[in-house]
Each structure stands twice: as C-alpha cells, then as structure tokens.
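Input chain follows. Return structure tokens only.
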Amino acid sequence: MKYNSIKPVQILLVDDDQGDIDLIMEILNESKIKMEIEYVKNGIEALKYLKKENGYEDVTTPDLVLLDLNMPKKDGREVLEDIKSNEELKTIPVVILTTSKDNQDIAKSYAEGASCYITKPPGLEEFKKVVSSLENFWFTIVKFPEEDR
C-alpha cells in the first residue's frame, strides 16, 4: 500500500493508562483524517505487535507509534531502543507521549531515535490541544515516504 489520502493512517498507541488511551483515541477519531488506531498496554505487547508475533501476525505495520515511557513489564525506554535497533522497524516514527519531564528521559529518548518528545499536560483541555496539534503536525505537515509497508 502507498501513503496517500485514501489509505488510513495506521497508529499504534502504547500506553498503560486506560483514561489516556480513551481520551487520545476519542480525539484522534474525531479527526477529518482517516486513521486506524490500535493500542496495547505494555512494551511486551507493543513489540509483539510491531514484529507481528503471537497473535499479531495479521496487523498492519503502523505509520506512527505513540509511546508512553512509564509502563509495566517493559517500559517505553526499552521499547524505543528495540524499535530503533531493528532494521525492519527503525524507520517508523516514534513520538514519546508521557508524563515524564525528566531531562534524562528527554535526552535519552532523542539519543535512541525518538522523533519527538511530548509531556502530557495535566488538564483535559490542554491534553486535547496537545493531541490535536500532534495530529495536525504528523498527518498534514509531515511527509511520509511512498513505499510499501
């Protein structure tokens, strides 16, 4: 499939907070841009999904990963490192969307290949603005390569 206006944008959301998942999906589903959003709640499931293993064999490779850092089992830091060290996955843009404001997390995320780092704001309206801005930037401004995935 080629990237174009007809193919829905494939997003994988990796977050363990059901409230954040629901809110992000609600905001993105209201978009005028066609999107297919899947989510998993920990890093182990994220890597199974991305590598199409253990029940995820038929999923579509995402165009973008929204990744929380602080999760159980395997945290987002480890997931980012695994994605960016994998030849088949490393070109997928990874947006860190987390509560962490720690400078070491920010620096390490960029060093590991994160496309951008966004701290989740505490208020509902601010959170909606951040997700809407993220949507606008990644799906109307950014250009993706025209290649098969």
